[in-house]
Amino acid sequence: MTRWKLILEWDGAPFMGWQRQDHGPSVQAAVERAARAMTGEEVRAQAAGRTDAGVHAVGMAAHIELAKELTAHRLREGLNALLRPDPVAVLSAEPVADDWHARFSCVGRRYLYRISNRRAPLTLDRGKAWRIGLPLDVAAMREAAALLVGRHDFTTFRSVHCQSDSPVKTLDRLEVQQVGDEVHVHAAARSFLHHQVRSMVGCLALVGQGQWTPDDMRGALEARDRAALGLNAPAEGLYFVEALYPA
Amino acid sequence: MTRWKLILEWDGAPFMGWQRQDHGPSVQAAVERAARAMTGEEVRAQAAGRTDAGVHAVGMAAHIELAKELTAHRLREGLNALLRPDPVAVLSAEPVADDWHARFSCVGRRYLYRISNRRAPLTLDRGKAWRIGLPLDVAAMREAAALLVGRHDFTTFRSVHCQSDSPVKTLDRLEVQQVGDEVHVHAAARSFLHHQVRSMVGCLALVGQGQWTPDDMRGALEARDRAALGLNAPAEGLYFVEALYPA
Fold first, then answer.
1. What CA dihedral angle connects A206, A212, A216 and A220, to 10 degrees?
2. Per residue in A125-149, pLDDT tens?
3. Distance from CA of A222 to the nearest CA of B (A)
4. Which of B52, B153, B172, B181 is catalytic?
5. Tell me, what DSSP letter sits at residue B21?
6. Contact (Cβ atoms closer than 8 angstroms) between residue A217 and residue A22
7. What is the rounded CA–CA span in Å between residue A114 and residue A124?
8. Cβ A9–B128 below 8 Å, yes or no?
9. Residue A210 and residue A180 in one domain
10. B36: CATH
Protein backbone atom coordinates (compact mmCIF):
# COMPACT_ATOMS: atom_id res chain seq x y z
CA MET A 1 0.00 0.00 0.00
CA THR A 2 1.14 3.52 -0.76
CA ARG A 3 -0.19 6.48 1.17
CA TRP A 4 -0.65 9.55 -1.01
CA LYS A 5 -0.90 13.17 0.09
CA LEU A 6 -3.21 15.12 -2.19
CA ILE A 7 -3.60 18.89 -2.41
CA LEU A 8 -7.17 19.65 -3.45
CA GLU A 9 -9.01 22.66 -4.78
CA TRP A 10 -12.78 22.86 -5.03
CA ASP A 11 -15.72 25.14 -5.56
CA GLY A 12 -17.91 24.50 -2.51
CA ALA A 13 -21.21 25.56 -4.09
CA PRO A 14 -22.56 22.11 -5.07
CA PHE A 15 -21.28 20.26 -2.00
CA MET A 16 -22.56 19.58 1.50
CA GLY A 17 -18.95 20.10 2.58
CA TRP A 18 -15.95 17.79 2.74
CA GLN A 19 -17.51 14.98 4.75
CA ARG A 20 -19.56 12.20 3.19
CA GLN A 21 -23.28 12.76 3.82
CA ASP A 22 -26.39 10.74 3.17
CA HIS A 23 -28.40 13.72 2.02
CA GLY A 24 -26.19 15.23 -0.67
CA PRO A 25 -22.90 15.34 -2.57
CA SER A 26 -19.63 15.77 -0.68
CA VAL A 27 -16.06 16.36 -1.76
CA GLN A 28 -14.93 13.28 0.17
CA ALA A 29 -17.36 11.04 -1.76
CA ALA A 30 -16.26 12.58 -5.08
CA VAL A 31 -12.57 11.90 -4.34
CA GLU A 32 -13.25 8.37 -3.08
CA ARG A 33 -15.40 7.60 -6.12
CA ALA A 34 -12.68 8.81 -8.51
CA ALA A 35 -9.98 6.79 -6.71
CA ARG A 36 -12.17 3.69 -6.72
CA ALA A 37 -12.92 4.12 -10.45
CA MET A 38 -9.19 4.36 -11.12
CA THR A 39 -8.01 1.42 -9.04
CA GLY A 40 -10.99 -0.80 -8.28
CA GLU A 41 -10.09 -0.45 -4.60
CA GLU A 42 -12.31 0.66 -1.74
CA VAL A 43 -10.73 3.97 -0.84
CA ARG A 44 -11.20 6.16 2.22
CA ALA A 45 -10.09 9.79 1.98
CA GLN A 46 -9.11 11.86 5.01
CA ALA A 47 -8.70 15.64 4.96
CA ALA A 48 -6.97 18.15 7.22
CA GLY A 49 -10.31 19.79 7.98
CA ARG A 50 -14.00 19.17 7.51
CA THR A 51 -15.42 22.18 5.76
CA ASP A 52 -19.07 23.24 5.83
CA ALA A 53 -21.47 23.20 2.91
CA GLY A 54 -20.57 25.91 0.43
CA VAL A 55 -17.05 26.51 1.78
CA HIS A 56 -14.32 26.53 -0.87
CA ALA A 57 -10.77 25.18 -0.81
CA VAL A 58 -7.71 26.30 -2.73
CA GLY A 59 -5.21 24.07 -0.93
CA MET A 60 -6.85 21.40 1.22
CA ALA A 61 -4.55 18.52 2.19
CA ALA A 62 -5.96 14.99 2.18
CA HIS A 63 -4.65 11.45 1.99
CA ILE A 64 -5.69 8.14 0.48
CA GLU A 65 -4.07 4.69 0.50
CA LEU A 66 -3.79 2.63 -2.68
CA ALA A 67 -2.44 -0.85 -3.36
CA LYS A 68 -2.16 -0.21 -7.08
CA GLU A 69 1.27 1.06 -8.12
CA LEU A 70 1.10 4.46 -9.75
CA THR A 71 3.32 7.44 -10.39
CA ALA A 72 2.30 10.73 -8.78
CA HIS A 73 1.75 12.17 -12.25
CA ARG A 74 -0.55 9.36 -13.32
CA LEU A 75 -2.52 9.44 -10.08
CA ARG A 76 -3.11 13.19 -10.31
CA GLU A 77 -4.06 13.10 -13.99
CA GLY A 78 -6.28 10.06 -13.54
CA LEU A 79 -8.15 11.47 -10.56
CA ASN A 80 -8.65 14.80 -12.32
CA ALA A 81 -10.08 13.07 -15.38
CA LEU A 82 -12.43 11.00 -13.24
CA LEU A 83 -13.51 13.88 -10.99
CA ARG A 84 -15.14 15.64 -13.95
CA PRO A 85 -17.63 17.24 -14.01
CA ASP A 86 -17.42 17.83 -10.25
CA PRO A 87 -15.61 21.12 -9.53
CA VAL A 88 -12.82 19.38 -7.59
CA ALA A 89 -9.21 19.27 -8.75
CA VAL A 90 -6.10 17.50 -7.50
CA LEU A 91 -3.36 20.14 -7.64
CA SER A 92 -0.61 17.73 -6.55
CA ALA A 93 -0.05 14.17 -5.35
CA GLU A 94 2.98 12.83 -3.52
CA PRO A 95 3.76 9.61 -1.66
CA VAL A 96 4.08 10.01 2.12
CA ALA A 97 5.04 7.79 5.06
CA ASP A 98 2.46 5.25 6.25
CA ASP A 99 1.96 7.15 9.51
CA TRP A 100 1.42 10.51 7.85
CA HIS A 101 -2.17 11.62 8.45
CA ALA A 102 -3.81 14.60 6.74
CA ARG A 103 -5.76 15.44 9.87
CA PHE A 104 -3.73 14.21 12.83
CA SER A 105 -0.30 15.22 11.47
CA CYS A 106 -1.53 18.73 10.65
CA VAL A 107 0.01 21.44 12.86
CA GLY A 108 -1.49 24.53 11.27
CA ARG A 109 -4.48 25.61 9.20
CA ARG A 110 -4.97 28.79 7.18
CA TYR A 111 -8.25 30.27 5.96
CA LEU A 112 -9.13 33.27 3.83
CA TYR A 113 -12.49 35.02 4.04
CA ARG A 114 -13.41 37.28 1.12
CA ILE A 115 -15.83 40.15 1.66
CA SER A 116 -16.83 42.09 -1.45
CA ASN A 117 -17.56 45.60 -0.18
CA ARG A 118 -19.70 47.19 -2.85
CA ARG A 119 -23.28 48.18 -3.58
CA ALA A 120 -23.69 46.24 -6.81
CA PRO A 121 -24.69 42.58 -6.69
CA LEU A 122 -21.95 40.11 -7.57
CA THR A 123 -21.80 38.63 -11.04
CA LEU A 124 -18.42 37.02 -11.79
CA ASP A 125 -17.80 36.46 -8.06
CA ARG A 126 -21.30 35.24 -7.27
CA GLY A 127 -21.03 32.49 -4.64
CA LYS A 128 -17.33 33.27 -4.19
CA ALA A 129 -17.50 36.13 -1.65
CA TRP A 130 -19.83 37.73 0.89
CA ARG A 131 -21.11 41.04 -0.45
CA ILE A 132 -21.60 43.81 2.08
CA GLY A 133 -23.11 46.98 0.63
CA LEU A 134 -22.28 49.45 3.41
CA PRO A 135 -18.71 50.83 3.45
CA LEU A 136 -16.58 48.94 5.98
CA ASP A 137 -14.30 50.65 8.49
CA VAL A 138 -11.25 48.45 7.98
CA ALA A 139 -9.23 50.16 10.73
CA ALA A 140 -11.93 49.33 13.29
CA MET A 141 -12.09 45.76 12.01
CA ARG A 142 -8.31 45.46 12.47
CA GLU A 143 -8.56 46.72 16.02
CA ALA A 144 -11.30 44.22 16.85
CA ALA A 145 -9.47 41.37 15.13
CA ALA A 146 -6.36 41.98 17.23
CA LEU A 147 -8.43 41.36 20.39
CA LEU A 148 -9.13 37.79 19.27
CA VAL A 149 -5.53 36.80 18.52
CA GLY A 150 -3.92 34.58 21.15
CA ARG A 151 -5.11 31.83 23.47
CA HIS A 152 -8.77 32.24 24.44
CA ASP A 153 -11.95 30.38 25.26
CA PHE A 154 -13.79 30.81 21.94
CA THR A 155 -17.16 29.43 23.11
CA THR A 156 -18.95 32.48 21.68
CA PHE A 157 -17.55 31.73 18.24
CA ARG A 158 -18.29 28.02 18.29
CA SER A 159 -21.17 26.18 16.65
CA VAL A 160 -23.43 24.14 18.94
CA HIS A 161 -22.47 21.19 16.73
CA CYS A 162 -18.76 21.57 17.46
CA GLN A 163 -17.13 18.29 18.47
CA SER A 164 -13.90 19.74 19.83
CA ASP A 165 -12.94 18.62 23.35
CA SER A 166 -12.20 22.15 24.47
CA PRO A 167 -13.33 25.63 23.41
CA VAL A 168 -9.85 26.95 24.20
CA LYS A 169 -7.80 27.57 21.07
CA THR A 170 -4.79 29.66 20.15
CA LEU A 171 -5.48 31.98 17.24
CA ASP A 172 -2.14 32.81 15.63
CA ARG A 173 -3.32 35.32 13.08
CA LEU A 174 -6.46 37.30 12.27
CA GLU A 175 -5.55 39.94 9.76
CA VAL A 176 -7.84 42.32 7.88
CA GLN A 177 -6.66 43.56 4.49
CA GLN A 178 -8.19 45.95 1.98
CA VAL A 179 -7.68 44.54 -1.54
CA GLY A 180 -9.34 46.79 -4.11
CA ASP A 181 -13.06 46.77 -3.28
CA GLU A 182 -12.64 43.58 -1.24
CA VAL A 183 -11.82 43.10 2.42
CA HIS A 184 -9.86 39.91 3.09
CA VAL A 185 -9.65 38.30 6.52
CA HIS A 186 -6.73 35.89 6.96
CA ALA A 187 -6.99 33.43 9.85
CA ALA A 188 -4.36 30.95 11.04
CA ALA A 189 -4.27 28.56 13.98
CA ARG A 190 -3.20 25.04 14.84
CA SER A 191 -6.89 24.18 14.69
CA PHE A 192 -10.24 25.94 14.73
CA LEU A 193 -13.58 25.26 16.36
CA HIS A 194 -16.56 24.50 14.13
CA HIS A 195 -17.79 27.80 12.57
CA GLN A 196 -15.05 29.75 14.34
CA VAL A 197 -13.74 31.62 11.31
CA ARG A 198 -17.22 32.46 10.00
CA SER A 199 -18.33 33.58 13.47
CA MET A 200 -15.31 35.81 13.94
CA VAL A 201 -15.77 37.31 10.47
CA GLY A 202 -19.48 37.88 11.11
CA CYS A 203 -18.66 39.94 14.19
CA LEU A 204 -15.84 41.76 12.38
CA ALA A 205 -18.41 42.76 9.75
CA LEU A 206 -20.62 44.25 12.49
CA VAL A 207 -17.62 46.27 13.67
CA GLY A 208 -16.84 47.31 10.09
CA GLN A 209 -20.41 48.59 9.64
CA GLY A 210 -20.33 50.48 12.94
CA GLN A 211 -22.97 48.30 14.63
CA TRP A 212 -20.36 47.03 17.08
CA THR A 213 -17.34 48.76 18.59
CA PRO A 214 -14.10 46.85 19.01
CA ASP A 215 -15.04 46.80 22.68
CA ASP A 216 -18.22 44.87 21.84
CA MET A 217 -15.96 42.26 20.27
CA ARG A 218 -14.05 42.02 23.55
CA GLY A 219 -17.35 41.64 25.40
CA ALA A 220 -18.49 38.89 23.05
CA LEU A 221 -15.26 36.96 23.55
CA GLU A 222 -15.38 37.35 27.33
CA ALA A 223 -19.03 36.29 27.49
CA ARG A 224 -18.02 32.74 26.48
CA ASP A 225 -21.61 32.29 25.34
CA ARG A 226 -22.90 31.47 21.87
CA ALA A 227 -25.83 33.83 22.52
CA ALA A 228 -23.32 36.71 22.54
CA LEU A 229 -22.42 36.02 18.89
CA GLY A 230 -23.36 38.91 16.63
CA LEU A 231 -23.48 37.21 13.27
CA ASN A 232 -22.20 34.10 11.50
CA ALA A 233 -20.78 35.02 8.10
CA PRO A 234 -22.07 32.99 5.12
CA ALA A 235 -20.11 29.96 3.91
CA GLU A 236 -19.61 31.23 0.37
CA GLY A 237 -16.87 33.73 1.34
CA LEU A 238 -14.70 31.15 3.14
CA TYR A 239 -11.67 29.42 1.59
CA PHE A 240 -9.52 26.72 3.18
CA VAL A 241 -6.08 27.90 2.04
CA GLU A 242 -3.40 25.64 3.46
CA ALA A 243 -2.64 22.85 5.93
CA LEU A 244 0.80 22.88 7.52
CA TYR A 245 2.83 19.81 8.55
CA PRO A 246 6.16 19.34 10.34
CA ALA A 247 9.02 19.45 7.81
CA MET B 1 -35.13 62.81 -21.54
CA THR B 2 -31.98 62.11 -19.58
CA ARG B 3 -29.13 60.13 -21.08
CA TRP B 4 -27.41 57.90 -18.56
CA LYS B 5 -23.94 56.40 -18.76
CA LEU B 6 -23.85 53.00 -17.09
CA ILE B 7 -20.78 50.99 -16.13
CA LEU B 8 -21.67 47.30 -16.33
CA GLU B 9 -20.15 44.07 -15.08
CA TRP B 10 -21.31 40.66 -16.21
CA ASP B 11 -20.50 36.99 -16.26
CA GLY B 12 -20.64 36.10 -19.94
CA ALA B 13 -21.39 32.39 -19.49
CA PRO B 14 -25.19 32.46 -19.96
CA PHE B 15 -25.25 35.14 -22.66
CA MET B 16 -24.97 35.14 -26.46
CA GLY B 17 -22.94 38.33 -25.97
CA TRP B 18 -23.91 41.98 -25.57
CA GLN B 19 -26.13 42.31 -28.64
CA ARG B 20 -29.80 41.35 -28.65
CA GLN B 21 -30.29 38.00 -30.46
CA ASP B 22 -33.33 36.04 -31.52
CA HIS B 23 -31.81 32.72 -30.50
CA GLY B 24 -30.73 33.34 -26.90
CA PRO B 25 -30.27 35.71 -23.97
CA SER B 26 -28.13 38.82 -24.34
CA VAL B 27 -26.84 41.41 -21.90
CA GLN B 28 -28.44 44.18 -23.96
CA ALA B 29 -31.88 42.57 -23.68
CA ALA B 30 -31.41 42.07 -19.93
CA VAL B 31 -30.53 45.74 -19.38
CA GLU B 32 -33.34 46.98 -21.61
CA ARG B 33 -35.86 44.71 -19.87
CA ALA B 34 -34.80 45.96 -16.43
CA ALA B 35 -34.99 49.61 -17.54
CA ARG B 36 -38.42 49.05 -19.09
CA ALA B 37 -39.67 47.31 -15.92
CA MET B 38 -38.47 50.27 -13.87
CA THR B 39 -39.87 53.08 -16.03
CA GLY B 40 -42.49 51.62 -18.34
CA GLU B 41 -40.53 53.13 -21.22
CA GLU B 42 -39.25 51.41 -24.36
CA VAL B 43 -35.51 51.60 -23.77
CA ARG B 44 -32.66 50.97 -26.18
CA ALA B 45 -29.22 50.33 -24.65
CA GLN B 46 -25.96 51.02 -26.52
CA ALA B 47 -22.58 49.73 -25.38
CA ALA B 48 -18.99 50.68 -26.18
CA GLY B 49 -18.39 47.27 -27.70
CA ARG B 50 -20.31 44.22 -28.81
CA THR B 51 -18.78 41.27 -27.02
CA ASP B 52 -19.04 37.65 -28.19
CA ALA B 53 -20.95 34.87 -26.45
CA GLY B 54 -19.20 33.90 -23.22
CA VAL B 55 -17.02 37.02 -23.00
CA HIS B 56 -17.10 38.74 -19.60
CA ALA B 57 -17.08 42.42 -18.67
CA VAL B 58 -15.80 44.14 -15.56
CA GLY B 59 -16.28 47.71 -16.79
CA MET B 60 -18.32 47.95 -19.97
CA ALA B 61 -19.73 51.42 -20.68
CA ALA B 62 -23.26 51.71 -22.03
CA HIS B 63 -25.96 54.33 -22.27
CA ILE B 64 -29.73 54.49 -22.09
CA GLU B 65 -32.22 57.38 -22.35
CA LEU B 66 -35.08 57.76 -19.90
CA ALA B 67 -37.93 60.25 -19.64
CA LYS B 68 -38.62 59.32 -16.03
CA GLU B 69 -36.80 61.50 -13.51
CA LEU B 70 -34.49 59.50 -11.28
CA THR B 71 -31.41 60.00 -9.18
CA ALA B 72 -28.28 58.09 -10.20
CA HIS B 73 -28.51 56.15 -6.95
CA ARG B 74 -32.08 55.09 -7.51
CA LEU B 75 -31.48 54.14 -11.13
CA ARG B 76 -28.50 51.96 -10.23
CA GLU B 77 -30.24 50.26 -7.31
CA GLY B 78 -33.45 49.75 -9.26
CA LEU B 79 -31.74 48.26 -12.29
CA ASN B 80 -29.67 45.96 -10.09
CA ALA B 81 -32.76 44.72 -8.29
CA LEU B 82 -34.56 44.10 -11.59
CA LEU B 83 -31.56 42.46 -13.30
CA ARG B 84 -31.68 39.58 -10.80
CA PRO B 85 -31.09 36.72 -11.29
CA ASP B 86 -29.14 37.54 -14.44
CA PRO B 87 -25.43 37.88 -13.63
CA VAL B 88 -25.31 41.50 -14.76
CA ALA B 89 -24.64 44.42 -12.41
CA VAL B 90 -24.70 48.18 -12.80
CA LEU B 91 -21.54 49.39 -11.03
CA SER B 92 -22.33 53.08 -11.57
CA ALA B 93 -24.80 55.39 -13.30
CA GLU B 94 -24.28 59.03 -14.17
CA PRO B 95 -26.15 61.55 -16.34
CA VAL B 96 -24.30 62.57 -19.51
CA ALA B 97 -24.83 65.05 -22.34
CA ASP B 98 -27.47 64.20 -24.97
CA ASP B 99 -24.79 63.74 -27.64
CA TRP B 100 -22.63 61.42 -25.53
CA HIS B 101 -22.63 57.96 -27.10
CA ALA B 102 -21.20 54.84 -25.45
CA ARG B 103 -19.95 53.52 -28.79
CA PHE B 104 -19.29 56.54 -30.98
CA SER B 105 -17.77 58.75 -28.25
CA CYS B 106 -15.43 56.00 -27.12
CA VAL B 107 -11.76 56.69 -27.89
CA GLY B 108 -10.15 53.67 -26.26
CA ARG B 109 -10.96 50.11 -25.24
CA ARG B 110 -9.10 47.84 -22.87
CA TYR B 111 -9.34 44.05 -22.61
CA LEU B 112 -7.79 41.47 -20.30
CA TYR B 113 -7.29 37.86 -21.30
CA ARG B 114 -6.72 35.37 -18.47
CA ILE B 115 -4.81 32.16 -19.16
CA SER B 116 -4.58 29.71 -16.25
CA ASN B 117 -1.31 27.87 -16.83
CA ARG B 118 -1.62 24.67 -14.83
CA ARG B 119 -2.21 20.97 -15.26
CA ALA B 120 -5.22 20.66 -12.97
CA PRO B 121 -8.70 21.40 -14.35
CA LEU B 122 -10.27 24.64 -13.14
CA THR B 123 -12.80 24.57 -10.32
CA LEU B 124 -13.36 28.03 -8.79
CA ASP B 125 -12.27 29.70 -12.05
CA ARG B 126 -14.17 27.37 -14.35
CA GLY B 127 -15.51 29.41 -17.26
CA LYS B 128 -13.44 32.42 -16.12
CA ALA B 129 -10.09 31.64 -17.76
CA TRP B 130 -8.51 29.54 -20.50
CA ARG B 131 -6.56 26.69 -18.99
CA ILE B 132 -3.35 25.67 -20.78
CA GLY B 133 -1.64 22.64 -19.26
CA LEU B 134 1.81 22.97 -20.86
CA PRO B 135 4.18 25.49 -19.25
CA LEU B 136 4.18 28.76 -21.18
CA ASP B 137 7.34 30.62 -22.17
CA VAL B 138 6.24 34.09 -21.12
CA ALA B 139 9.40 35.77 -22.44
CA ALA B 140 8.76 34.41 -25.93
CA MET B 141 5.12 35.50 -25.71
CA ARG B 142 6.25 39.02 -24.80
CA GLU B 143 8.60 39.13 -27.78
CA ALA B 144 5.82 38.00 -30.11
CA ALA B 145 3.30 40.41 -28.59
CA ALA B 146 5.64 43.35 -29.18
CA LEU B 147 5.58 42.58 -32.92
CA LEU B 148 1.83 43.24 -33.04
CA VAL B 149 1.87 46.61 -31.29
CA GLY B 150 1.44 49.61 -33.59
CA ARG B 151 -0.50 50.30 -36.79
CA HIS B 152 -0.98 47.18 -38.89
CA ASP B 153 -3.33 45.43 -41.25
CA PHE B 154 -4.78 42.83 -38.85
CA THR B 155 -6.66 40.79 -41.49
CA THR B 156 -5.12 37.56 -40.12
CA PHE B 157 -6.60 38.30 -36.70
CA ARG B 158 -10.06 39.27 -37.94
CA SER B 159 -13.20 37.14 -37.96
CA VAL B 160 -14.86 36.61 -41.34
CA HIS B 161 -17.94 38.18 -39.73
CA CYS B 162 -16.11 41.41 -38.89
CA GLN B 163 -18.06 44.50 -40.03
CA SER B 164 -15.25 47.02 -39.69
CA ASP B 165 -14.60 49.17 -42.78
CA SER B 166 -10.88 48.57 -42.65
CA PRO B 167 -8.59 45.82 -41.27
CA VAL B 168 -6.01 48.47 -40.38
CA LYS B 169 -5.96 49.23 -36.66
CA THR B 170 -3.49 50.74 -34.22
CA LEU B 171 -2.77 48.43 -31.30
CA ASP B 172 -1.55 50.61 -28.42
CA ARG B 173 -0.70 47.88 -25.95
CA LEU B 174 -0.31 44.10 -25.90
CA GLU B 175 1.38 43.14 -22.67
CA VAL B 176 1.98 39.67 -21.26
CA GLN B 177 2.20 39.35 -17.47
CA GLN B 178 2.85 36.37 -15.22
CA VAL B 179 0.50 36.57 -12.20
CA GLY B 180 0.97 33.52 -9.97
CA ASP B 181 0.04 30.52 -12.12
CA GLU B 182 -1.86 32.74 -14.54
CA VAL B 183 -0.66 34.56 -17.63
CA HIS B 184 -2.53 37.79 -18.29
CA VAL B 185 -2.60 39.51 -21.66
CA HIS B 186 -3.58 43.18 -21.58
CA ALA B 187 -4.73 44.71 -24.85
CA ALA B 188 -5.58 48.34 -25.56
CA ALA B 189 -6.56 50.17 -28.74
CA ARG B 190 -8.95 52.82 -29.96
CA SER B 191 -10.96 49.94 -31.40
CA PHE B 192 -10.51 46.28 -32.27
CA LEU B 193 -11.60 44.07 -35.12
CA HIS B 194 -14.06 41.25 -34.41
CA HIS B 195 -12.18 38.40 -32.67
CA GLN B 196 -8.93 40.37 -32.77
CA VAL B 197 -7.99 39.96 -29.10
CA ARG B 198 -8.89 36.27 -29.01
CA SER B 199 -7.01 35.65 -32.27
CA MET B 200 -3.89 37.44 -31.03
CA VAL B 201 -4.01 35.55 -27.71
CA GLY B 202 -4.50 32.23 -29.51
CA CYS B 203 -1.30 32.82 -31.49
CA LEU B 204 0.54 34.04 -28.38
CA ALA B 205 -0.40 30.74 -26.72
CA LEU B 206 1.18 28.84 -29.64
CA VAL B 207 4.35 30.87 -29.11
CA GLY B 208 4.20 30.22 -25.36
CA GLN B 209 3.97 26.47 -25.96
CA GLY B 210 6.87 26.52 -28.43
CA GLN B 211 4.71 25.57 -31.43
CA TRP B 212 5.37 28.98 -32.99
CA THR B 213 8.42 31.23 -32.81
CA PRO B 214 7.98 34.98 -32.47
CA ASP B 215 9.00 35.05 -36.14
CA ASP B 216 5.97 32.91 -37.01
CA MET B 217 3.85 35.62 -35.41
CA ARG B 218 5.47 38.19 -37.68
CA GLY B 219 4.76 35.91 -40.64
CA ALA B 220 1.10 35.53 -39.63
CA LEU B 221 0.68 39.31 -39.36
CA GLU B 222 2.38 39.93 -42.70
CA ALA B 223 0.31 37.24 -44.45
CA ARG B 224 -2.81 39.44 -44.03
CA ASP B 225 -4.80 36.22 -44.46
CA ARG B 226 -7.23 34.62 -42.00
CA ALA B 227 -5.89 31.22 -43.09
CA ALA B 228 -2.55 32.16 -41.48
CA LEU B 229 -4.20 32.35 -38.05
CA GLY B 230 -2.86 29.74 -35.66
CA LEU B 231 -5.60 29.58 -33.10
CA ASN B 232 -8.54 31.61 -31.80
CA ALA B 233 -8.53 31.63 -27.98
CA PRO B 234 -11.82 30.65 -26.28
CA ALA B 235 -14.24 33.37 -25.20
CA GLU B 236 -14.28 32.43 -21.51
CA GLY B 237 -10.86 33.96 -20.78
CA LEU B 238 -11.72 37.37 -22.22
CA TYR B 239 -12.81 40.39 -20.15
CA PHE B 240 -13.85 43.80 -21.42
CA VAL B 241 -12.13 46.00 -18.85
CA GLU B 242 -12.69 49.66 -19.69
CA ALA B 243 -13.94 52.10 -22.28
CA LEU B 244 -12.21 55.49 -22.44
CA TYR B 245 -13.83 58.82 -23.34
CA PRO B 246 -12.51 62.35 -23.86
CA ALA B 247 -12.37 64.17 -20.52
1. -30
2. 999 999 999 999 999 999 999 999 9
3. 37
4. B52
5. B
6. no
7. 14
8. no
9. yes
10. 3.30.70.580
A with B: how many residue pairs have Cβ under 8 Å apart? Answer: 60
Domain of residue B220 covers 111-244
Under 8 Å between Cβ of A197 and A241 = no
CA distances from B158 to B29, B49, B164 (A): 26, 15, 9
pLDDT in tens, A2-27: 999 999 999 999 999 999 988 899 99
Average pLDDT over residues B107-135: 97
The secondary structure element, H or E, covering residue A36 is: helix A27-39
Q: Specify whether A116 is located in the same domain as A224.
A: yes
| Same-domain status, A240 and A150 | yes
Q: Which helix (H) or strand (E) holds B9?
A: strand B2-10
φ/ψ of residue A92, rounded to 5: -155, 155
Q: Is the dihedral of CA A145, A146, A150, A152 positive or negative?
A: negative
Chain A residues closer than 8 Å to B122 by CB: 89
- Diameter of chain A measured on Cα atoms: 58
Q: Cβ-count burial of A20 within 10 angstroms (0-12 exposed, 13-18 middle, 19+ buried)?
A: middle
Domain match, A120 and A238 both: yes
Is the ipTM value over 0.90, yes or no? yes
Q: Which of these, A15, A1, A12, A7, lies nearest to A102 by C-alpha position?
A: A7
